[in-house]
Write a structure and sequence with these properties.
It contains three helices and no strands. With 84 residues, the chain is mostly helical. It has a domain of 57 residues.
Amino acid sequence: MEQGVPLSNNGWNFMFAPTGTPNAIVVKLDAEIRKVLARADVKKILFDQGYTIMEMPREEIAEFIKGEVPKWRKIVVASGAKIE
């Protein structure tokens, strides 16, 4: 706990397509990215860099991010960080 805000050292990464991208393309990209992330050599490279691959259904990503925004907003505000 730092400055009254519980912290986790877990980060997350997602890949996004531009708004309006046809669903067929999004589905194809999703499948291809999952194939790459399933490769043993890719898993090893990512693991060696400190990553853990955790899959999330595309339909759940927006809700996950909505849940993260308030937590990180509180941390940024508490830090006094400013965009310059």
